[in-house]
Amino acid sequence: MCRGNEIQRADLGLDMLRPQSQNLEELSLESVEAILIRKALQRSQGNVSQAAETLGLSRGALYRRMEKYGL
Predict the structure, then answer these.
(1) The domain spanning residue 29 has which CATH number?
(2) In the chain, at which end, N or C, are there fewer CB atoms within 10 A of the end residue's CB?
(3) Sign of CA dihedral 13, 68, 48, 71
(4) Element (H, E) at 60
(5) Using an 8 Å Cβ cutoff, are 62 and 48 in contact?
(6) What's the total number of domains in the chain?
(7) Could you give the 3-state DSSP secondary structure of residue 28?
(8) Is residue 2 situated within a structural domain?
(9) In the chain, pLDDT over 70 holds for what percent of residues?
(10) pTM attached to this predicted model
(11) Is the predicted pLDDT of residue 17 greater than 90, yes or no?
(12) Direct distance between the N- and C-terminal alpha carbons of the chain, in angstroms, rounded to an integer
């Protein structure tokens, strides 16, 4: 999901966060996972199969997580 050799804030979708929650250390694992799923779906233009592959998940696993996070 990274566009360069180093992972940047934008690669993780952290630019979508509210200003008071900018530190990755302050986020729960669930919040980070939801952000990464949203970012993968955006990059794949809504293609769930492609987003799942990018995230290293099966399509079914991605659908379950999307349901869990209301995506």
Answers:
(1) 1.10.10
(2) C
(3) negative
(4) helix 59-69
(5) yes
(6) 1
(7) coil
(8) no
(9) 72
(10) 0.66
(11) no
(12) 19
